[in-house]
Write a structure and sequence with these properties.
Strand order of the largest sheet: 5-2-1-9-17
Organism: Kordia aestuariivivens
Cofactor: FAD
Protein name: Fumarate reductase/succinate dehydrogenase flavoprotein subunit
Shape: globular
Largest sheet: 5 strands, parallel
Keywords: Coiled coil, Flavoprotein, Oxidoreductase
Pfam families: FAD_binding_2, Succ_DH_flav_C
Length: about 675
Amino acid sequence: MALDSKIPQGPLADKWTNHKNKINLVNPANKRLIDVIVVGTGLAGGSAAATLAELGYNVKAFCFQDSPRRAHSIAAQGGINAAKNYQGDGDSTYRLFYDTVKGGDYRSREANVYRLAEVSANIIDQCVAQGVPFARDYGGLLDNRSFGGVLVSRTFYAKGQTGQQLLLGAYSAMNRQIGRGKIKMYNRHEMLDVVIVDGKARGIIARNLVTGEIERHSAHAVVLGTGGYGNVFFLSTNAMGSNVTAAWKAHKRGAYFANPCYTQIHPTCIPVSGDHQSKLTLMSESLRNDGRIWVPKHKKDVAAIREKSLKPTDLKEEDRDYYLERRYPAFGNLVPRDVASRAAKERCDEGYGVNVTGEAVYLDFTAAIQRYGKEEAHVKGLNEDDAALVKKLGQEVIKNKYGNLFQMYFKIVDENPYETPMMIYPAVHYTMGGIWVDYNLQTTVPGLFAIGEANFSDHGANRLGASALMQGLADGYFVLPYTIGDFLADDIRTGAIPTDSKEFEEAENKVRSEIEHLMNNGGTKPVDYFHKKLGKIMWNKCGMARNEKDLKSAIEEIAQLRAEFWKDVRIPGSADEYNEELAKAGRVADFLELGELFAKDALQREESAGGHFRDEYQTPEGEAMRRKEFQYVSAWEYKGAPKDAVLHKEELKYENIEVKERSYK
């Protein structure tokens, strides 16, 4: 099947407007005759469910959490981008579009990214109307801060809990529709298969996680807003429940999986402390606005700090290496995430890491506290030379901007980041790969749509900070509600989709047989044993740096581990009850297949682009070396085992941006 991205004709700035003008619509009376299933209730799924229901469709929404409020979007901290140019610093729709394509290392689709930039401003207005408490400046106007990879301030935020506040906005919109009866909410339900009838997605098979009951649910279209697959690495910043299952089941039913190897390594996370950990904690990238990243210049100081005979605060300025400011003077500490992550790894690999394991660098707020303190003292007419007063005033400013993040760090690390620099290290965060979709956000399966992090479409090889929330809400509020109508316009006379068809029966039987296999396996090892082993293979051989030899061995090791899993995993309890180990086993089974495809995709991409760094392809300065022959989206078709997956290429054409070497110096 040839890939058809359905990108509209005409000038870039007019594509979305012209597309909306010509797209098929469903009139309000006919929307009442149409059912839509939305899987996932984070920012993408929640906003889509609320908007579709508001338009008049009958929506069934599913989440595996006990409430939509617990979707992983809640964990997003730093902010959401929008090209409103409130700061008057030169921002524009084109600038946001340009920064996003460049930040993604020229591996994303121009038309989709421009549309994202175009609708971004609407998101802020929508959320303000919902009561989202964005930070405001002294005059009461919405405030902005800067994020990595850009030279303007376009990020709207609510302290360090922006995701939570935006999700509450979407959740309140959902609740209104639940109250009206337009959304039927299924909490604690996990989608385990997509049902295809006459070539179209017409429903799902779901498991009630509380009772274990297997259920059939039908609709005229299915929307997946199920997030990313960072937990294939076991340790990531994702919630422990985050998984690839819904997307992977869709892949096995014919939806192509695009760019699976594109993973974002976030530069500012709390370092790993030991094998006891089950997840990692993100420290928002917004901290890089005011925090300066450094390591000691001399290894004798590194050794003393590790032995705790020297405090980082005792080190003089001339003995510190602010390596991002040194290497990238134009952007400094605000280089994109992939660049900052690789730079931290390089310093630690050279022996300058500051914690016991040697895998940490400092994020220091001393200079910002001093700067803000002097400014506050000046404004209040106080003594700017009073060091104690300046420090106190400066800490109050930092607390107002990032207080919950500092509190979280203190509770986890037991060190006061107001007094001692934070220790950070890169960790797996977001996944730019996902289900392939066209301009309408439809997958290669008609009637099956993917939105937010679940699709591949907007971020290329590296997502700029504060763009995840932007894409999730753009897709859910402003894109999918238009484009899904183009498909559903043919279904106004279809009538309700029955669930007693052979297709539903076959899909349900398939789900039941997989569950029975897991329950009756009689193995000896718990699920986490396999998940941790997979995570170590992925991190060591498919992580921040990759090479041909390691990727080939990773493919073999993952295949062997998957075979061992199906022979020797042990699931206690029964299938007809609440059984978290069974739910986890199903998710890890899918990770064990995805992991192999991930490594296969990384192996065929013989270039370094964004977060995908191949040792064989780097400049003399150690920067990523992109190659023109890989200017495509790799979309994989399921053919059984991951080793048999077939590669389809969507060539990427750049008509509005010059593709050149990416430099932040």
